[in-house]
Amino acid sequence: MAVLGGGSFGTALADISAANGHRVKLWMRDAEQVGSINNNHVNARYLPEFQIHPSVTADTDLAAVVSDADIVFIAIPSKSFREVVKKTGGLLSGKIVISTTKGIEPVTFDLMSQILVEEVNDARIGVLSGPNLAREIVAKALTATVIASEDDELCQTIQSVLHCDYFRVYSNSDVYGVELAGALKNIYAIVSGMGAALGMGENTKSMLITRSLAEMSRFAVTLGANPMTFLGLAGVGDLVATCTSDLSRNFRVGYALGQGDSLEDAELKLGQVAEGVNTLKQVKQKADELGVYMPLVGSLYSIIFEGNAIGVLVKGMMLREQKTDVEFMSR
Ligand SMILES: NC(=O)c1ccc[n+]([C@@H]2O[C@H](COP(=O)([O-])OP(=O)(O)OC[C@H]3O[C@@H](n4cnc5c(N)ncnc54)[C@H](O)[C@@H]3O)[C@@H](O)[C@H]2O)c1
Ligand SMILES: O=P(O)(O)OC[C@H](O)CO
Questions:
Q1: Which residue range(s) make up the domain with 90?
Q2: SS3 label, residue 151
């Protein structure tokens, strides 16, 4: 088995699979980080306080890592996803390839599994998404996720590779819905972090999360996703985890913005990728094109990219036209 990307989530997946008896190779670019995994079983940069299973080995040689594997998980930030897939130079053909990346490619509006379809011949493609804060997984907190594919056998294979007493894997055939939900929730985690910095109460948190669910579902259903997917782990599940935890990088960026930091400073402080910032840009553009009503996306965009005051977020939630509660389910 191979995992491309030795950040926090790639390492968490490698650790589970290795503990389940698989020989796992982690592809990382940094030779020092590779040494730390191979010699000390620690991901010194991303998860320094955790011991990784000794059957996880790391390598900087992408071709060697991929050639050896029948299943390849990809946990690379969306901005480099296509570049890394191209670098595998055809070696992914015939393999099970699972994207775990929650982002949207600029210009094409492609999700990562769509990039895989475009770039790889004959792969069996799936998407893994859900409320999966990496740090909680490596700490063995009870967690569930979703494997999405139309290929039932692939779903069963991934369930057996990852299932253990603290990690449960459900399946869903709505690949587009599961994958889009994972990308969209990052936008609302930024909004929630901002609200947390401003001291919002429980009523407000609940309204924000529920209206976020309505908004992301409305957008996704317009693009062809199944609204039921948004009631599951990859939808409301991931939205709740990310909008309520300061382990979420997107939440933390929002929190810093809410404290008055610029986007640049907020991202600098974080030192890791918060996918929601790029996703916000892509979704705002697409929603405008399609005429989808997304007041939270519009307000957040105007705060981050047009210099509006945080008060517009309140207007986005409170002052727009009245709507019915769950209109996205009854389209
Ligand atoms: N961290 C989580 O809790 C979590 C959970 C589920 C899904 N995800 C998703 O997984 C993806 C990766 O997240 P992460 O948390 O592991 O990120 P991370 O920032 O912890 O790690 C990303 C890794 O990718 C590597 N990388 C970046 N650009 C690269 C390139 N061009 N070539 C090779 N390697 C490159 C980095 O060096 C790093 O090792 C994101 O889309 C994220 O949304 C994260
Ligand atoms: O740290 P974040 O905000 O990228 O969120 C991590 C995962 O997507 C949570 O499921």
A1: 2-173
A2: coil
- Cα maximum dimension of the chain: 60
Contact between 171 and 146 (Cβ < 8 Å): yes
Residue 26 sits in the same domain as residue 164:
yes
Burial class (CB in 10 A: 0-12, 13-18, 19+), 209: buried
Where are any strands of DSSP class E within 142-256? 143-148, 167-172
Q: Using alpha carbons, list the distances in angstroms from residue 325 to 193, 218, 221, 243, 329.
A: 24, 12, 16, 20, 10
Burial 88-125 (b: 16+ CB within 10 A, else e): beebbeebbbbbbbbbbbeeeebbbbbbbeebbeebbb
One-letter amino acid identity for 8?
S
290 and 141 in one domain? no
- 84: Cβ below 6 Å to ligand 1? yes
- Residues 96-134 have pLDDT tens digits of 999 999 999 999 999 999 999 999 999 999 999 999 999
Query: Nearest 10 degrees: CA dihedral of 305, 306, 311, 314?
Result: -70
The predicted complex's ipTM stands at 0.98
The CATH number that applies at residue 205 is 1.10.1040.10
Residue 226's beta-bridge partner residues?
A: none
228 and 135 in a single domain? The answer is no
Closest C-alpha among 136, 277, 117 to residue 193? 277
- Rounded Cα distance between 170 and 13, Å, is 16
Give the global pTM. 0.96
* pLDDT at residue 214 in the model: 94
What's the CATH number where 131 sits?
3.40.50.720
Pocket, ligand 2, Cβ cutoff 6 A: 102, 131-133, 186, 189, 238, 241-242, 248-250, 275
> Which of 26, 99, 244, 273 maximizes ligand 1 atoms within 8 Å of its Cβ, making it the mutation to test the pocket?
273
288 and 271 in a single domain? The answer is: yes
CB of 33 within 6 A of ligand 1: the answer is: no
Whether the CB-CB separation of 259 and 310 falls below 8 Å is answered with no
Distance 321 CA to ligand 2 centre (A): 31
